[in-house]
Specification:
6 strands; about 230 residues; alpha/beta
């Protein structure tokens, strides 16, 4: 494997609704096109040597502040996409394990949860690659629940290792590279805040539904040229 390839990429796929507006289609059509992009990006990244890909699919704010019709459309899309993931040739040929983090088990309706669980179960034995979805997720919420759990456990001395063990992402390695599309170069709602401490950042003006394998290659090439100092 090329040592210049990041082990773990996290993607903030911004711009679905703006892309839809520019193309005169519904927001849901923007999200559907975004799902098409992800289906192309995942195998391309895996074949390039990336072991972990984390995607922020829906924040807690999205779930509570977007219109009922938009949320319903997203949930329907999640249901169909996770059904597809459970039987995807790309997933099974590359032995990709599906993981889902966030409050989806509390927030999502039964049929959507069933589809997600189906994909998780169908890939549970794989270890070659990991595709991580963050749904009904907020990094501040993740850290808050971790601290609450640690306090409730009666731990007297809190270490970085103990904090990590109580996060949703306790089994994931640190994020090497964050990719954010949409032309707004910032992080949001503490996305994976503990795991992105030393991450490299790569921003693009491209809206997520217009993102391509070539764009991913550009991000990987830029990453390979950077020297990661990790505070040194």
């Amino acid at each position: 494997m090329n040592t210049g390839i990041p082990t773990h990429i996290a993607i903030i796929p911004d711009g679905n609704r703006r892309w839809a507006s520019e193309h005169g289609v519904s927001p849901l059509d923007g999200y559907k096109q975004g799902a098409e992009v992800l289906r192309a990006i995942m195998p391309h990244a895996a074949d390039a040597g990336v072991k972990y890909i984390s995607i922020w699919g829906m924040s807690l704010d999205n779930f509570t502040k977007r219109s009922i019709s938009e949320v319903a459309g997203l949930l329907s899309l999640f249901r169909s996409e996770f059904h597809n993931l459970a039987t995807s040739d790309d997933i099974h040929r590359r032995k990709v394990k599906i993981n889902v983090f966030g409050r989806w088990e509390e927030k999502f309706p039964k049929l959507v949860k069933s589809a997600i669980q189906k994909a998780i179960n169908a890939t549970s034995e794989y270890t070659d690659h990991h595709m991580n979805f963050f749904l009904a997720y907020n990094g501040v919420d993740e850290m808050t629940q971790a601290i609450q759990t640690i306090i409730a456990s009666g731990v007297q001395t809190v270490t970085p290792e103990i904090i990590k063990q109580h996060l949703f992402t306790k089994d994931l390695p640190p994020v090497d590279l964050i990719i954010r599309t949409g032309g707004e170069p910032h992080l949001s709602a503490g996305f994976m805040m503990w795991d992105v401490t030393d991450s490299q950042l790569w921003f693009t003006e491209k809206l997520w539904p217009a993102f391509t394998e070539k764009d991913l290659d550009e991000a990987l090439e830029e990453y390979s040229k950077r020297q990661r100092r990790k505070g040194a």
